[in-house]
Every structure is written in C-alpha cells, then in structure tokens.
Design goal:
This protein has 324 residues and is mainly α. It is built from 13 helices and 5 strands. The structure holds adenosine monophosphate and tryptophan (TRP).
Length: 324
Amino acid sequence: MAKVLSAIQPSGDLHLGNYLGAVRQWVTSQEENDSYFFIVDLHALTLDIAPETLRSNTVKTAASLLASGLDPTKCTLFVQSHVPQHTGLTWLLECTASYGELLRMTQFKDKGKGQDSVRSGLLTYPVLMAADILLYDINFVPVGDDQKQHLELTRNLAIRFNNRYGDTFVIPEAKVPEVGARIMDLQNPTNKMSKSTATPLGTIGVMDDPSDIEKKIKKAVTDSSMLITYDRENHPGVTNLLEILSAVTDMNPLQLAEKFANYGELKKATTEAVIEALRPIRNRYYEILEEKDTLRDILKEGSEKASSVAEVTLAKARSAMGLL
Ligand code: AMP
Ligand code: TRP
C-alpha cells in the first residue's frame, strides 16, 4: 500500500482552487492508500495572524476537510502542532539545508515582498514542510502546481541527509492533477486563485452561497475576442472557466471549448456545475461545525496515530546524526 500525505494552511473556508487542485485528490486517495492529511497551523505563524483567527480558522478548515469527504476511518487527519515531532525534525533538517537554497524559493519571495520585517520562519517554512513529509515515509504528495518547488527541495534534503548520515528517509514524489492544478483568480486570471491576495470577486469559496457563485462567475473576466479556446497564454480568463468546468464535470477541456457558442453559455454551464459540485459539501460543513466535540475527538485520535509513526523516523534521524 502506498503512503500518501498532504496538508493545507488554516485559512478558514477552502476556496475552489484548494478543492480542485488538492482536496479532491485526497478524498480519492484515502480509499486505496495509507493517507495522512493535516492542517499546518505552525506554517500559518510565518505571517502575522491574530490568535483568535488562527484558532477559529483551524477548526473551520478541519470541518471543511471532513465536509469535502475526508473520512477519519480511512485516513489520519490531524493538526500539525499537535504532533511535536514535526518541529523536532525541522531543526535537524535546517542543519542540512543551505541559506541560499531557501532564499531561492518563489513562495518566500512572493510572501516576503513589501513587508517591513520578514519573519525568519517564512524563510525556513519549506524545511518544516519537508519535515512534515519525511516523518511518515511518504511515497506521494498530492498538491497543486504551486508546491512543486517545495517538493523538489524536500527530495533534495532527503537525498542529502541519506548520503551524509545513511539511509533514513524515503524520497517522496509530488502528484499534481492534470486538470485543476492551477485555478486562476476570476478577476485577474494571470494570478492563481488564493485566499490572501485575491479580490473577493475573484475567489470562489467552497462554502459560498449559490447566489454569490453565480455573481462571481457572471462577472469573471474573459476577453474581447469572443473566441472560446483553451489557451492559457492568450485567453487566460476563458481558459480558466473551461478548466474549472472540466475539473468539476470530468470532461476534456478541449472538447468543452467546442460546445459553447458564446461566453454567456459557458458561464451559465460553469455556474450550474460548480454549484452542484459544492452543494453537498456546504450542507455537511454546517452540520459538522455544530458537533464540536466529535471534531475535537477526531483530531485528537489523528494526532495520536500520527505521533506514533513520526516518532520512529525522528528517533532514526536523531541517532543517524549522532545525537545521544
Ligand atoms: P494552501 O491553501 O496554500 O495551503 O494550499 C492547499 C493546497 O491547495 C495545496 O496543495 C495547493 O497547491 C493547492 N492550491 C492552492 N491554491 C490553488 C489554486 N489556485 N489552484 C490549484 N491548487 C491550489
Ligand atoms: N506549503 C503548503 C501550502 O502552502 C502546505 C503544506 C505544509 C504542505 N506542509 C505540507 C503540503 C506537506 C503538502 C505536504 O499549500
């Protein structure tokens, strides 16, 4: 059985990019693999976040994952900070990583841009991510396109560690979906859809009201050519709508491009498909949020399971490096 792991930041409700690029793959993966999924609350501390916001976003993100179909009887679901081995391994890996390679990470450059003072955790963020993965002997990491560079770093750190200290870590591989790996902002289709940087009209929340989804897709930026072509470079807005429709209907985006006579038809079909795909998730989400005790028990059990697996690898790594 393959071992699969992925994680998400506690940004509250999921957006459509998170769901199509990542979480949907996780739900399928749990059926066949030994799977670990978690909420990276420690990574959230790399930017300034109010404690009460972090607390409530962590709960909401956990509820969103369960509502999307993660099943705690089929996967291990937990909160990163509840498993102390993640920070334990991070230090060991920080002493394997070089300052220069961390400076080259595009996410560090993007998130650090324009800040008066950049937290050092933002620089070492990808090392914590490498620890997240390497603790569990993982084969595959299902993520959106934006995480490929971090996965490459994780592989490099693992290979470097194994060469220097002896075979300790399994070398993981990123698994990026064919469609949906990079959903773009509806208002600014050359930027990826994201919770933090987008305009509110550009991001579809998985828990959005159907009327909001309709409004956002109706106002989505297309272009003046009136052509419906799947061409990211020259028609990014239209291509993004085709990509979304393709991901939620499992139909080929090139064939979909031939089906519609005008943007109005494409937008109408996309609106209906997105609303239908998200409706059950949204309904379950509000039920789960009502059951706070159950949610807490699920996360507690998940972190206990994760911790027992992680401890074995951490002990191996410590001893390989010569710690008594
Ligand atoms: P984050 O919210 O940054 O923690 O991302 C959680 C997961 O969603 C990661 O696997 C990302 O690669 C994926 N993801 C985030 N934004 C997008 C997007 N716009 N399109 C596709 N996948 C995304
Ligand atoms: N960096 C990832 C993101 O921003 C989140 C993450 C942290 C992650 N640790 C991970 C993803 C381990 C996959 C595996 O989306």
